[in-house]
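Q: Sequence in, structure out?
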Amino acid sequence: ITAFEPFGGSKTNLSMPIANETARLLEVSGFKTRVCILPVEYDRASELALECLSGLPEAQLMISMGIAGCDVR
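A: Exactly. Output:
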């Protein structure tokens, strides 16, 4: 599960706690998860997401969290 670090002067990014709670709920259901907090840098985020996945068995699902305005997407 990916989420983004704070940006625009914010101290937090709502995608982070949502990603962590999603991981917790999935783990309770028997799924193995990993949460990766990505920088808000277009050119680096995808590279770091792939690095986060390296060394894991083939992922069956990848969830990317982000915020836009007041909506979580």
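The two ends are 13 Å apart (CA to CA).
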